[in-house]
Amino acid sequence: MTFCAGYVDAYTFIVRGNTLVAGQAGNVVFLSVELIQNNVSDVRDKLLTLIAFIMGVFLLTIYKEKLRIVKKSILSLIPLAILSIIIGFVPQTVDNIYLVPPLAFCMGLVTTAFGEVSGIAYNNAFMTGNIKRTMLAFGDYFRTKHTPFLREGFIFVSLLSSFVLGVPIMMSIFYLSMLFA
């Protein structure tokens, strides 16, 4: 999931108007800059993306038991997979407003459905909290020598690495596609 978040954020940032669909803290910063610079269309895109992400989190929280996503988080990937396939065929000339907010909604669903790995809570879309948790786990291990902390630290390293790998892979695909365009 962290790979997916890094990949999709890289895609929307590079190709779709410098907007992040998973990293909403970044969107709030970008939104503030756009407001100050009076870029109305960019404000619209980032605000609708933020609202769409919020709605994805909110609606899944309300309906996850009815949709049986509590035990089958993988089901939350279906809308994202379908939308990603569709977007693959949409020309870059299509306005970002039709693609980025729906992607953000799907990332809100996925972020809400996937929040734990091996019994350890994590966030699949945001790096800051995961970096903090990594350093806390390693710090606790060095302080106490308890191996569960070391294991937790390595789990977070793998999550962070997965997120980071999503970005260059997306960029490689993007630049390769430009060679053949």
TrEMBL record:
Transmembrane segments: 47-63, 75-94, 100-122, 153-176
Swiss-Prot/TrEMBL keywords: Membrane, Transmembrane, Transmembrane helix
InterPro entries found in the cross-reference section: DUF1275
The keyword Amino-acid biosynthesis appears for this protein: no
Cross-referenced Pfam families: DUF1275 (PF06912)
Listed name of the protein: DUF1275 domain-containing protein
Organism: Streptococcus pneumoniae
